[in-house]
Amino acid sequence: MKSNFDYLDNFYVNLGSRCGMKDSREQVARMELFRCFKQYADLFCKTDSADLLKNKTMHTMLQVHHARQFLEMRKADTYCGILNCLSNPMSTEMMEKIARQYEFVLANAVDCSVKEKINFIYVKSIVLNCIKPGSRQLQPYQKLLDLLSQVLRGQIPLSDNLPLHFIAVALLWPQQHLKPAEPRSLGRYVSQMRTSYHAVMKEVCNGKRPVVHFFMGKKQGYERLVHLGELKRCVRAGQEPIASMWGNGKIWKEKEVEELLCRVTGEVQGNLILADTCIPDVKIEITPMFRSQLSGRAVGSKVSFFIGFSMKGPLAIDIN
Description:
This protein is an alpha+beta fold. It has helices at about 1-15, 25-45, 55-75, 80-85, 90-110, 115-130, 140-155, 160-170, 185-200, 230, 240-250, 255-260, and strands at about 15, 210, 215, 225, 265-270, 270-275, 285-290, 300-310, 315. The strands form two sheets. A five-stranded mixed barrel has the order 5-6-7-9-8. It has a two-stranded antiparallel sheet with strand order 1-2. β8 and β9 (about 315) form a beta hairpin. α1 runs antiparallel to α2 (about 25-45) and α6 (about 115-130) runs antiparallel to α7 (about 140-155).
């Protein structure tokens, strides 16, 4: 039952309409999914352990168990559930509580999994920073990168490949004042992400595009990842819906959006683009969101674009 919930969440969170945005027509199905999950959580995510807590030798073990149950009830035990917190309103207090629960699990669980470490990175680096940038739960950016590098060096279960390489590409993309230890590994992570995406999504991705979860902004550290919600705030009242502006490309011409996002240069290589980075000899393959934007462009011609991060890999948007 839990596997089915996770599978459907993966579908709804990571795949959208043909323009690369979440499809509002699926809202009814998602509400029904939430209703069913609530019934599941009421039955399987609660443990009456008052008597067991009196046993001091089991106290910490039970606290870890309760923390994991809390995360499962909040759908924060999967990277999809964590990403979904950005689209669905959640109080900053609840997001900080989720972060504290993960800190407790990582510090006290003897069987802490790779999945939990990855989820912790998602909570800290992406969601909490977007919901409450000044939160005391945020730790130094470099410390988070160190944890990410540690996870990347270890054994990675196949089921964790996609979320790990997504966050690795988004966080380790070279920055002017903060270069990753092995920037040349990014190309390999992008390739592995594409392979994992097709393996996980091959049965359901027909007619769908991967959702762009983040864009690369001009700032550094935590603030470099820009969420769609920030772009929505750039659209003035009275303008057409953001979904329409996304589809016709008008959103990328908004002055505030242009000031927020980082325009990157690159070189056309067939159906792909080799994106330049701040490290001269490191270039990363990027897929255009719409291949038609590369039609008629000769191999080797220079282009500029914004970068969007999706589970299928980084995408080139608004190619000029």
